[in-house]
């Protein structure tokens, strides 16, 4: 696939892996890395035929992403801070808007912008050595890449406020208990576990998977009657796809479906 300076993008048998690759800085997110993430996500979006699921992870054994790059941020003025935040929102928004399902394979420190990146993914499979936190207040700032919002939606207001106001880290078991982590794995088994889930998902039709994540994300904060109505519209639309005919025909013919994403 395409080469980037700060991330690696590889694809194998329908599953792409995007690795944040600045291990000397614990994969901290500077502008160049956020730009590379956005560009790599465009490649994923434009290759729906070849890529059905995306795994996002960090390079090295220590960190998924240890936050936004503090050495870049220290001397920024408010306008530059807003630009950096916009850059991150643009890239993280692309993750949510992909049809492809996204899995964060959290291999180590997942702090600040790192937790905000992981929170933008559809699922989080985490190493039992991973540590999670929003330490921004310890630096005199607040989360600026969506942390006050996406973390709150994952764990509820009380826990989000506790994590953000204390700035302290929680371990993988606690992250699992509060709903940040969907599964916890041994470090050596993390990518295999993420790949196993990705393999199950990629067998399903990309349209149905993409629509399911779209309706879950878009309708989550609507009143229930509107959300149900939205789901009904999406459900009805799947009956206009070849995948629906193929899925149901395959069931009736007692064979595996061959979805084409049409
Ligand atoms: N930015 C820049 N460099 C970093 C970062 C970071 N976030 N994290 C680690 N590094 C660098 C260290 O400076 C060090 O570099 P060097 O070897 O050149 O001295 C290298 O990575 C290794 O780190 P440590 O030596 O500190 O490793 P330790 O094992 O001792 O500690 C920790 C690991 C606990 C993860 C520690 O590095 C740490 O606390 N890092 C900072 C974590 C943090 O505060 N993250 C939040 C940053 S703020 C943020 O993400 C805000 C997002 C919203 C921004 C909105 C902007 C508008």
From TrEMBL:
Belongs to the enoyl-CoA hydratase/isomerase family. The keyword Cell wall biogenesis/degradation does not apply. One of its GO terms (biological process) is fatty acid beta-oxidation. Pfam families: ECH_1 (PF00378). One of its GO terms (molecular function) is isomerase activity. InterPro entries: ClpP/crotonase-like_dom_sf, Enoyl-CoA_hyd/isom_CS, Enoyl-CoA_hydra/iso, Enoyl-CoA_hydra_C. Keywords: Isomerase, Lyase. This is Enoyl-CoA hydratase isomerase. It comes from Companilactobacillus kimchiensis. It comes from the Bacteria. The keyword Nucleotidyltransferase does not apply.
């Amino acid at each position: 696939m395409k080469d980037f300076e700060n991330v690696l993008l590889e694809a194998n048998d329908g599953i792409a892996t995007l690795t944040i690759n600045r291990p000397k800085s614990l994969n901290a997110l500077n502008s160049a890395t956020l730009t590379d993430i956005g560009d790599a996500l465009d490649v994923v979006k434009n290759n729906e035929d070849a890529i059905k699921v995306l795994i996002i992870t960090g390079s090295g054994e220590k960190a998924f992403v240890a936050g936004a790059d503090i050495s870049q941020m220290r001397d920024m003025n408010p306008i530059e801070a807003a630009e950096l935040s916009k850059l991150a929102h643009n890239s993280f928004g692309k993750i949510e808007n992909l049809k492809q399902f996204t899995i964060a394979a959290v291999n180590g420190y997942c702090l600040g912008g790192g937790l905000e990146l992981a929170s933008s993914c559809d699922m989080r499979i985490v190493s039992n050595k991973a540590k999670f936190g929003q330490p921004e207040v310890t630096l005199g700032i607040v989360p600026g890449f969506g942390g006050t919002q996406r973390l709150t939606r994952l764990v509820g207001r009380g826990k989000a406020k506790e994590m953000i106001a204390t700035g302290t880290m929680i371990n993988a078991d606690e992250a699992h208990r509060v709903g940040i982590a969907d599964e916890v794995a041994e470090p050596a088994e993390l990518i295999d576990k993420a790949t196993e889930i990705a393999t199950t998902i990629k067998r399903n039709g990309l349209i149905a998977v993409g629509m399911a994540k779209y309706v879950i994300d878009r309708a989550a904060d609507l009143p229930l009657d509107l959300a149900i109505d939205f789901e009904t519209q999406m459900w009805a639309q799947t009956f206009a796809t070849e995948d629906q005919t193929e899925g149901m025909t395959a069931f009736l013919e007692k064979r595996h479906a061959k979805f084409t994403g049409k």
